[in-house]
Amino acid sequence: MSPAAARQAFFDRTHTDDLIAFLGTSPSPYHAVASAAERLEKAGFRQVAETDAWDAAAGGRYVIRGGALIAWYLPEGAGPETPFRVVGTHTDSPNLRVKPLPDTGSAGWRQVAVEIYGGVPLNTWLDRDLGLSGRLTLKDGSWRLVQLDEPLLRVPQLAIHLDRQVNDGMKLDKQRHLTPIWGLGPVDEGSLIAYVAQRAGLEPAEVVGWDLMTHDVQPASYLGRDRELLAGPRLDNLLSVHAATAALAAVASAGGAGLPYIPVMAAFDHEETGSESDTGAQSPLLGNVLDRTVYARGGTPEDRARALAGTVCLSSDMGHAVHPNYTERHEPGHHPLPNGGPILKVNVNNRYATDGVGRAVFAAACEKAGVPWQTFVSNNAMPCGTTIGPITAARLGIKTVDCGIAALSMHSARELCGAADPYLLASAIKAFLEG
Ligand code: ZN
Q1: Which residues does 17 contact at the CB level (< 8 Å), separation at least 6?
Q2: Exposed e or buried b per residue across 233-244, where buried means at least 16 C-beta atoms within 10 angstroms of its C-beta
Q3: pLDDT by 10-residue block (mean), the chain, 435 residues
């Protein structure tokens, strides 16, 4: 079979259609975990509270903490020393987030003060129609999701007539030039939160806290002559969250009989800012969940150590496809392309956790799934990004492999990848989880 025919054979548009829907209902990390939970519930998973005592019943369970979700499927007959297979992802994406006192303005314009979250290519947020989403926290500490999908805000670019040098390199001041407008009139203090509260069906006085962020309201879509590409927001890293959810749900739906591992999915928040939070990969969240499932099955610290020693984590996150207009930025011998299958990410300075043994695990999963795969390594002159992979490996002492999908425009408000790759990734993750 030719590579093109192989790709076509694997092109499951149903999976990619569902990813497009997932992106649309997941404008914030809080929404992403809700979207994942909805799919897990359909596959028979049930939510458990961290504050409850956990039992050892077989089946699917998940916990949600803020914008993070950990789900696992306990097969019938798993012992306390049974190792785990963990697929790790993150739910957050770089964007513009609402400041504590958001109502501001200048020269007759009403504006919203925003803070920049993560590594944002600022120009990609100009002249886009932006919605608002996130969560509103009530006096009793509970919170409600809110998603306003119509054009509410916009960061208007300066006209070229007022900036003749713009094409020689745009300079954007993070404080002065990124403040979105949302209407005309004098600054009306308290009006943004009051408006959002009302839209969520709440009395403004009930809302005492908020975590709100902007998103491009244009939905994700297929792109290209043959619709073989996928353009959309938050592909980094909701593509992986969606693939991991689909893979874990598929493993659970198959019944899990005879599984040598306990399949686990970890979707962390705050990867884009260094993972240092109670919901990030540096937190004890994943470790606590794994430990508690061991102890719930009557395991001892010895069982826990044995389980973790046999555990492997597959960290999945977006990577760079070779850019046709900037090929010199890439490693000349490693040119991942969209729809060539998932990429194995390698960096000997441990920006990625992959080593030769990890490569073998990844290759075996792809081979079992019948999925082609590629390798990514940076050009030595270009600093390499990193992922939750090395953090998880160091934090839990578990064998970890970094993989992902080749994309262009990473961290842009609208990214681009192959439309067949999400299914190929999900298939590889499923094979990995099954062991
Ligand atoms: Zn990422």
Answers
A1: none
A2: bbbbbbbbbbbb
A3: 53 91 98 98 98 95 98 95 98 98 97 98 98 97 96 97 94 97 95 97 96 98 95 98 98 88 98 96 97 96 98 98 96 95 95 95 97 95 91 95 98 97 97 95
Cα-to-centroid distance, 301 and ligand 1 (Å): 33
**Ligand 1: centre distance to CA 234 (Å):** 9
CATH code given to domain 3-93+233-434: 3.40.630.10
- Ligand 1 centroid from CA 108, angstroms: 38
Distance 240 CA to ligand 1 centre (A): 9
Tokens representing 97? 């987030």
Q: Quote the ligand 1 centre to 386 CA distance (angstroms).
A: 8
Does the reported pTM lie above 0.85?
A: yes
**For residue 236, how far is its CA from the centre of ligand 1 (angstroms)?**
5
CA 344 to centroid of ligand 1, rounded, Å: 14
CB atoms within 10 A of CB 379: 14
Domain ranges of the chain: 3-93+233-434, 95-216
Alpha carbon distance 269, 274 (integer Å): 10
Centre of ligand 1 to C-alpha 55, Å, is: 34
CATH of 95-216, one of 3.30.300.130, 2.30.110.10, 2.30.250.10, 3.40.630.30: 2.30.250.10
